[in-house]
Amino acid sequence: MGTTWPFAGRGEELGHLLRLACDPTAQGVLLAGPPGAGKTALATHLTEQLPAGRLGGVRTIRAATALRDVPGGALTTSLPPDPGTARTPAPGPACAAAETVQRCGEWLLRNAGAAVVTVDDAHLLDRHSAEVVATLVRTGRIRLIATVCSGEPPDGPVVELWRDGRLRRFEVEPLREGDVAAVLAAALDGPVDETAVARLAELTGGNALWLRETVELARAAGALQRTGGVWRLTGEPPEARGPEELVGRRVGALPSEVGEVLEYAAFGEPVGMPALAALCSGTAVREAAEGGLITVAAEGRGEVVRPAHPLYGSAARERCPRERRDDRYARLVAAVEADGSGDPAVLAGWRLAGGVEADPGPLLGACRLAGGVHDHPAAIRLGRAAVRAGGGTGAAVELAAALEDAGQPHQAQAVLLRAEERWSGDDRDRVRLAVARAENLAWGLNRLGDALDLLATTRKEVPGPGPRREADAARAVLLAEAARADEALRLIGRARGTDGGLSAGSGAVTDAKVAGARALALCHAGRTGEAAGAVEDAPRAEEGPGRPYTSPYATSAMCGCFSGDLDLTARAIAAMRRPPGEHGWPGRNEQALAQARLAMLRGELGAALLILRTPARRETPQDAAERMAAYATAQALHGDAAGARTSLEAARGRATWTALRHWRALAEVWAEAASGGPSRAVELALAHAEECREGGPASFEAIALHDAVRLGAPISALPRLSELAAVLDGPRVRLAARHARALAEGDAAALAEVAAGFGATGLRLFATEARAQAKALRDGTRPGWRPHPA
Fold first, then answer.
1. pLDDT at 537
2. What pTM was computed for the model?
């Protein structure tokens, strides 16, 4: 019967699938069904049937249990190792694995175009590969045909695409009796007796793999024979509770050499043919292929071997004793390293699984990739392995970041303290550890003061300008994130151009940190024009372990909101939508937050509420707090005082020292106003403005003062707003000062002009309020504030 069974029947299903796959309102189809249902065969024939005009080529990514714990494993083993463009690797021990995955992602982006990408067993994708595929779909670069086992947990980036409405779901049903007859006739090369067809269909429940295994065993036992040109049952076929049982029986009865081939294919999926040939006899490999246990196919990395079905691989792994398993991994590593075909991250995964000594470099790269997609267990496991493998300071820093991201900041601090105890005397390592400890103190343990003190002490104690610059850069970033704009700008300004200061040329990462901190501080200080320019001019550099720092795009978006240049905000949001390979991954929830703030300023409260109601993808606790503060503001503006109070309670991030405290304070003003306490709301707004004036974030001060004006209390706000209008950038603060003056003077005509000015800049929320105040003045009523309709 050959190594694979032919595809037959399922004509009606294939037609329905074709319509789903070409649905212009979606971007592909998700085929779901139990193991052995025939999902892969159906998906393969679906791609062959798609209209040629819709295809720019079909790229296939094959997921596997053996790669599930290797970040980027499915990508790096399915696509070519060298996409054809030379790249200079970024510095650092983690680059081998990280650069390989980055190239693969970019290769897909360059070559996918209008293409179809198929992902077999998408539920087995490692998190990083799944995120790359999902991003390609979300950015409209590919159409996706994916298969998943219906019994697997219903989550993950690819399944989320179905929930988002981007993929159509198709449940693969069992083969009907007519389809069973067609499959058997094609596989056995002849007609099959109707009684035999009915019995086999009943016995296997129409499961394609179960049917195949039953027929194989029945033929071997003489229970299915050809007589008179027709295949008939001459005995009772083997019974089982499912395809897994039959596969297990077959694998357990394999000759040792053939079983060895299947084990290597299962543990190393996929294994290059040269490596397998070095490990097993050619006769055994041929028997395994002819028996349908393995497949041999040309893929992105050459001719590779895989189990013919995931159930074969599972059965082989389950029956392999630990000692033999470790030996298989050790031999796999040796064979693949000998022929030079292995990916560093995959090899590191094999070493870990088999207890073989590992190189820390690929482990660090894999740890970073796992952390980047919030696969915390994998990141921690890989980080610990890198530390054990002698990864030194770099491994400790990566592991600490993984622990902190997983909500274990105290464990992270302990890892860094142990690394400090083993410090060997290298000043850069000392500063790197100090920076990591300070970041952990600030972000994880909410101890900003201790973090700044640690960095200041470290700067005094280390010689040489380079390490000092790194310590100063870390301090500047924390001050900027705390919205202590004046302090951050003084530190950067004082240090620029001095020996050991933050001058250009401090190193790509340090330069990028300083530029980002300067842009953010300028934004908070109300110098939004300079800030936007600084973002444009800032160098880009790959950072180490991720922290919830404000991205350049988010800074640009805030500049537009603070200044009233809403086109700038819209451009920043568009930049956040760019796919990886152009500017890296989009920010966590920064895009949604910027969209919601823009919608509020435009008076589109319904849109803002809709955006903020649902958590963003990969949302951290700090992200959630920022979102809930914005949600509370939108709810309060809509008049939902109770909802706003509930959201404010949820808007408590792990780090209370960040600019979040200003956004939360502003939300508190409107929650109080929505509750019917305008006087108290004005007091809160003016008190927060005074706090900002003492601390330096003039942009927040201007907003708080204008909030008092919007609430009908312009007198106290007018003097300071007039001062700020003369020094801060953008039309928003100038219109706010005019708003205060017109309302203080009771000038309805001037208020109408202010409303027109707000409207012309797109600030329709304020325009609506100013028009209502002007009407109140003309009607002789008190110009207070009323909630906005959504």
1. 80
2. 0.78
